[in-house]
Every structure is written in structure tokens, then in C-alpha cells.
Design goal:
- The chain has one helix spanning 74-79; strands spanning 5-8, 12-14, 20-22, 28-31, 38-40, 47-49, 52-53, 64-66.
- The protein is mainly β and 100 residues long.
- The chain has a three-stranded parallel sheet with strand order 1-4-7, with no helix packed on it. A three-stranded parallel sheet has the order 2-5-8, with no helix packed on it.
- The N and C termini lie far apart (34 Å).
- The model is unreliable at 75-79 and 90-96 (pLDDT under 50).
């Protein structure tokens, strides 16, 4: 993705394993009508980097959804959960284990 503000009218679905979604110049994803900006399926090796998830004018349940907590195959997903890595500079965000 290139720099700019993207007003999304549908969710970006990442469904392939080992996909890299790279934002150059920190593109901003803004959902409309309360949708989820990006949904990453329960697949291995997906990498997201260099983008901003901003709130839209209508509340969304989440801005970024990683994995699925139910549905067909959820037993397999619980046995092999996804992993969400955070770069050290982003640890200033609250809600991570070990935060003060």
C-alpha cells in the first residue's frame, strides 16, 4: 500500500499463508459503516507492517481481526494458535502482558 488515507467500504481479507501486507509511508485504513478494516484468516506466516488502523465515524467491532475464535476447524486453531508479534517500539501501547 502507498501513503494516503484509504476509506474502506469493504473488509480487506488476508486468507493466504505467508502473505506480506506492507505499507509504505504509513497508509491509514479507515473503515466505513462499522466494518472491520482488515481480517487475517487463521493461517500461518502472515506479516503486517507499516500501516495505521484508524477509527471511522461509525463504531466497528474491531479494526484488525487476527484469526477466528470459532467455526469449522476451530479445534485445530486452538491447538495451533496464531501469533501476534509486536516490534519493541510499539510496546508503548497498553494491553500487552508485562505492561505496567
Amino acid at each position: 500500500m502507498t501513503p494516503g488515507a484509504y476509506n474502506l467500504d469493504q473488509t480487506i481479507e488476508v486468507t493466504w499463508p505467508d502473505t506480506v501486507v506492507l505499507g509504505l509511508g504509513f497508509p491509514t485504513l479507515i473503515p466505513s459503516r462499522g466494518i472491520v478494516s482488515m481480517r487475517v484468516a487463521s493461517v500461518a506466516g502472515v506479516k503486517l507492517s507499516g500501516m495505521i488502523f484508524d477509527a471511522g465515524s461509525v463504531n466497528s467491532p474491531v479494526l484488525l481481526q487476527v484469526g477466528d475464535c470459532g467455526g469449522p476447524g476451530s479445534r485445530l486453531r486452538r491447538a495451533r494458535p496464531g501469533r501476534l508479534d509486536v516490534e519493541p517500539d510499539d510496546r508503548r501501547l497498553r494491553g500487552f502482558p508485562g505492561d505496567p
